[in-house]
């Protein structure tokens, strides 16, 4: 958060989590620019902080983002929305700004009110700890963790400016977006419409192309803020690429740390008639539980790939489909190809290629295997 | 198979399965009627026997169905189709009919050719064992099992006639259809168009409304044959209800025996604006891995229900949604309802009700929980 100049951050434990771990993060843009853009979950059931932040971001400017773990504040009715409103107001008071310039993000269990006494009580400590140091940025990334085994940050430097980011998310990872919160900061001077375009392009090709378990959350939020404090006005293309690089780095970190996963599976659809076709096929494969179990068992069961492809509306002929698993073309033109015994699935990274033989588009989606540990983690406690 | 008069059946072990278990079933219609109807998987990647039987069924008449377990004969190219053709021809020779009147069904691993020497060699024993006894019917049901822990049959009797059925399927159960083979027989005298209508109506409300794991197979086939040997021409409504009763019974048996499942979950969507809306919402919930894990852990995590509902295009307002788990309204009007601790999830049967408050349609879909045993069973071996 603080790799880009013009930002202060903090991460503190205020008692929302019963474990006593850090659970409140604050990121403040010191300017001179306050331009900001955001994308939110496409789930129609949206948490209170998403409803709030969607309104706030309409103005295209932000002074601060406050994020809590330990509770999603989703499905909590009008009272939950009031809780979000109060949180933004209290942050605004402390920073001498208006609540309408403060975004709020929450993550954790759905359907439970936040302990507002603890949250509001802890805000003063949170504001008091704000700093522009690397440590303060790391603290913020730490405070948004839920089942993440480690904090996730990424930074890229370009000619005279920096784009940095932090993210959380370890389960419920699915397009549109993953179950994740992400805040990106840059000290480049970028007009709001350009921030918005860069962010939408980047998330569509990164966070929207990871699908750990097919489940879409109520709280997903990605916010990009520009302080302009470097004074550098970047080339729009270069800037968009920098934002995408940070998002891609964070997205891969999310998949690498997905709940209970033992494999990171790269699903590459080649020769699709369109990008939409490629995406539909890739997502259908990414959500096929039987295939995900097979990869967990290191079994190159390519029949399960074809049965997933067959459920889509994409353009293809069944007898033209080919499938490679880690370089071995186990299925050629809809029939048996090379010996499946040649596939080595012992590595954590699995590369699946499906050739639709219907065009020239290539689309890649990342997913995980389905493991006993995933079932354990998601059955053993409410999250 | 033999509960209805006019049918002979057999089930034998011909060596397709390395375990030596029964793997070849034969059902023969002795008439006087030979009317038949069928529905097939909506997967675009169809196994050779599906492609064959679709052609055969166009004539609306069948003399016999031959079914093997131990191999799906899917994604096996033109050679696989030739194997199916040869199987039908050999059965036709033995029964003194034409191959065009013999349907073929296969189930098992995708992407492997069938051991045709064993299959064809075993057909003579199979034909030789044909009998109209209850035991022969039970043998046929036994021979189509794959991971099913037991054979599945159902019979209903109506005024002067019988509808009977057998089915297999324990995983890859998803609408359109489940991974299943099912043969239904009746001694009622029913014209083919009426058979077809009864079968389509029944499967749409039974097999198409079970969704164990969201995966759709390449081989699903449901065949209904009428021998007319009772001489009874039934009331069309009563007959359709009888067929649906047999299908419903078999569908529940499939869900009860789904791979690794510890819960049977009845998802009832009430007050939907349309049947299509109710189905979309129910299927979205049935495919939510996080919720299915929660039920495995007996955790009434209703937030996961709402986040699944929110991914659909059905008509609803988020703040009008209510959810009951085993009779406890844990979510009312989009917010926190009764204490989730009141839910007792210890029973194998879980009843989930989602009130969309958008109309008056009710739709029910059955699914299972997602368990460590499911992952184990589907990772530990190729099927």
UniProtKB/TrEMBL annotation, chains A, B:
Site entry: Cleavage: 178-179
Annotated keywords: Acyltransferase, Amino-acid biosynthesis, Arginine biosynthesis, Autocatalytic cleavage, Cytoplasm, Multifunctional enzyme, Transferase
Catalysed reactions listed for this entry: N(2)-acetyl-L-ornithine + L-glutamate = N-acetyl-L-glutamate + L-ornithine; L-glutamate + acetyl-CoA = N-acetyl-L-glutamate + CoA + H(+)
Localization in the cell: Cytoplasm
Gene Ontology BP term (one): ornithine biosynthetic process
EC number: 2.3.1.35, 2.3.1.1
Associated pathway: Amino-acid biosynthesis; L-arginine biosynthesis; N(2)-acetyl-L-ornithine from L-glutamate: step 1/4; Amino-acid biosynthesis; L-arginine biosynthesis; L-ornithine and N-acetyl-L-glutamate from L-glutamate and N(2)-acetyl-L-ornithine (cyclic): step 1/1
Catalytic residues identified in the record: 179
Signal peptide residues on this chain, from the entry's feature table: none
Record Pfam families: ArgJ
Top-rank EC class of the record's enzyme: transferase
KW Secreted (keyword) present: no
GO cellular component term of the entry, any: cytoplasm
InterPro entries in the record: Arg_biosynth_ArgJ, ArgJ-like_dom_sf, ArgJ_beta_C
GO molecular function, one term: L-glutamate N-acetyltransferase activity, acting on acetyl-L-ornithine as donor
Record's keyword annotation contains Transferase: yes
Positions bound to substrate: 146, 168, 179, 259, 378, 383
UniProt site (Involved in the stabilization of negative charge on the oxyanion by the formation of the oxyanion hole): 107-108
Subunit note: Heterotetramer of two alpha and two beta chains.
Family: Belongs to the ArgJ family.
Record function comment: Catalyzes two activities which are involved in the cyclic version of arginine biosynthesis: the synthesis of N-acetylglutamate from glutamate and acetyl-CoA as the acetyl donor, and of ornithine by transacetylation between N(2)-acetylornithine and glutamate.
HAMAP family: ArgJ
Protein name: Arginine biosynthesis bifunctional protein ArgJ
